[in-house]
Write a structure and sequence with these properties.
The chain has 120 residues and is mostly helical. The protein has 2 domains: 2-29; 35-117, Cytochrome Bc1 Complex, Chain D, domain 2 (Orthogonal Bundle), CATH 1.10.760.10. It has 6 helices and no strands. The protein binds heme C. Heme C binds next to helix 3, helix 4 and helix 5.
Amino acid sequence: MQKWIMSGLFFVACVFAIVLLFTLPGKDQVAQEAKPTMPEVTLDAAQAEAVVKASCIACHGDQLQGQSGPNLQTIGTVLSAEQLYSTISKGKGGGMMPSFKDKLKDEEIANVALWLSEKK
Ligand code: HEC
């Protein structure tokens, strides 16, 4: 009788472990969310300027000189294209810098990141 209970419990534990295995996000997935990978794009300066004009200058100033958001005129000396991509995608400062991953295409964000990374 007791053996029967033990193997029953063991079976339930196994099923539980298997379910967890498939429902918990893997390490890869977590790492990806923490640092999104930037898609490869070739710089299109005209498109970058258009996106920045439409989405960024309200806070960063029309010359990127800074306003409610910080100056970005030499941001390329501080952040790499990947870091810029990550910041623009996810936002910063608890929403003070908004997340753009649902507002812009990944390629548009990557293009702006590349464009900003050359601001040195
Ligand atoms: C609603 C205002 C607002 C808009 C719109 C906005 N930003 Fe920001 N941004 C901020 C603020 C505020 C910060 C500073 C956040 C912090 O450091 O806590 C910031 C920070 C940043 C940083 C990080 C600077 C650093 O030194 O780490 C980058 C890069 C940046 N913004 C780029 C952009 C780009 C590109 C766009 C347009 C796609 C944009 N921002 C649109 C307000 C804004």
